[in-house]
Amino acid sequence: MAQFTDLLSTAFLLLVLYHAIKYIYRISPLHPLVRFPGPRLAAMSNLYGGWFDLSWRRSYVKELAGMHERYGPIVRAWPNQLHVRDLDAYNQIFRVGTEFIKSPHFYTNPVLTHSFFNITSTRAATARRAMMMPFFSRDAVRRAEKTLLNPIIDKFVDILAVQHANISDDGSRVVDMTMATRCFAADSVMNFEYQKPLGVLDAPGFQAAFIHAMDGFSATQQWPIYFPKTFGAIFRAIEMLPRWMVERFMQPFALTQWVQRVCFERIAALQEGEAGLEKGEAGLEKGKGAPTVFDIALNPKMEKGHPRLTREELAADAFLFMVAGTDTTADALTAAVFNTLYNPEIHARLRDELRTLRPKCDSSGWAELERLPYLHGIVKESLRLSYGVPGRLPRVVPDAGAVFCGQKIPPGTQVSCSIFVYHHNESAWQDSFMFKPERWIVSENHNAEAVAELEKRFLSFSRGSRSCPGMNLAYANLHLLLARLFRRFDMELFETGKEEMEWKDSFVPMTRGHLRVKIREAED
Ligand code: HEM
Question: How large is the average pLDDT for residues 311-321?
Fold first, then answer.
């Protein structure tokens, strides 16, 4: 009898223990995490207020897309952190004048300190952006086409034609297109900003040290996001070291500091006017009086609500434009070249279309090229499948709270949206992983409404007050450069397949290998 009572009380105790554990588990923050494919992702998700995005793992955002397929449009990482894949939610979060501020845990990168990228408040960032946005409008970019965009494009294609490449056995040249497009983008953005390029296109074989340094930085991007204080402290400590020491032992830092100095000197030169333009390694050429991106910011009008920026802030914005515009533009160009060459039918259709232009299309402008349906389709697909910034873009739910997909979301919740996830929502994009320029072309079985619907779901430049200010510049460069490249050269892939083009999320996508192409002047 005693044994039976013992057994019963043990069973009872076990039952109580089981329910106690279950209860503790249910009220503990671990509870929502069981819905995740494994504890790895969950384990550190609450650290520093972000998802632990395991960005060294190639499949992170792909896992996220899979979770949405399994669990619906809202996936929780933590009670106060969630990921949404719903167009209405996106448009609510990323609208003009949004009250969903950028997450202060995420937008902390010390390399971008003083720039408006790290300003979380929409109002403060908008006031600052407003001074520069007129120079990025469609009209402004069109006006700059001949004087600021084309000279860099001409230089790029001329280099491809004559220099910097190894001649292979069959007489064609092998070009590292991953590096080439990034050198092009960095020089193009800098030229657009100050009418003077950075000079990286001149690096032999496009192997510019600064572009390699940017790679080094991209590879460490999870650190400033998850360990902002530690990374910030390390960064500040490095800034205090003597320059020779940084140059000797920390090349990526040294090169980044060099470009930051170039930006600072160029801003100083603009501030000091003509006298300043003549001095300094980064001095602008005398006599080039066209307006620059910083004209309004250098002469702010208080009555219009313009903030007065310090030289550090202006230089930080100049540096921001350069880094924000380099990898993104180059990734889209790389995606365009790779996918076009990988699919012979797409390549042939593009070549046929470009042959309708004046010889070698050297004088065709952006407006004309944009009207070429197939080229335009290639540009759109390249942007869709290079994603711009594929990861989380976290924002904070405002005091009024929010409603996503019928669910009430409390204030203070951190909500993330991934462009990668949206662009691979199969219910919106059929065969989402396939490169299909024709999906953007109005045809017999694909009407204008269907294309307009895709536009609504196309998020490469994000939306609203914090969307990409460089969108028009990027579109112009993509149309102009791709037309020139495919019209002037015969190209084929060289030892580059899908495996080399696989990527991981380092804020921007970083491919496993480089895109290399054989290139020779086209005869027709
Ligand atoms: C294919 C090219 C490009 C793509 C796909 C792209 C995409 C994006 C995206 C998605 C964002 C939002 C990021 C976020 O919310 O954290 C962004 C922001 C930004 N982009 Fe771009 N971008 C491109 C080119 C450029 C160029 C050429 C420039 C400059 C000349 C530029 C400057 C910026 C800046 C300054 C921001 C920060 C905006 C802010 O914080 O308010 N981008 N871009």
Answer: 94
Whether residue 394 has its Cβ less than 6 Å from ligand 1: no
pLDDT reported for residue 202: 93
Stronger pLDDT, 173 or 197, i.e. the higher one: 197
Name the CA radius of gyration of the chain, rounded. Answer: 26
Does the annotation flag 405 for ligand binding? no
Contacts of 289-293 spanning 24+ positions with Cβ under 8 A:
290/147, 290/195, 291/135, 292/135, 292/193, 292/194, 292/195, 293/132, 293/135, 293/136, 293/192, 293/193, 293/194, 293/318, 293/321
**Buried/exposed 53-86: b ≥16 CB within 10 Å, e otherwise:** bbbeeeebbebbbebbeeeebbbbbbebbbbbbb
Contacts of 380 (CB under 8 A, 6+ apart): 437, 440, 458
Ligand 1 pocket member 328 (CB < 6 A):
yes
Interface predicted TM-score (ipTM): 0.99
Average pLDDT, the chain: 84
Of 115, 263, 328, the one to substitute when testing ligand 1's pocket (max ligand atoms within 8 A of C-beta) is 328
Q: Is 320 in the pocket of ligand 1 (CB under 6 A)?
A: yes
Whole-angstrom Cα distance, residue 381 to residue 69?
Answer: 23
- Mutate which of 115, 128, 468, 475 to test ligand 1's pocket (most atoms within 8 Å of Cβ)? 468
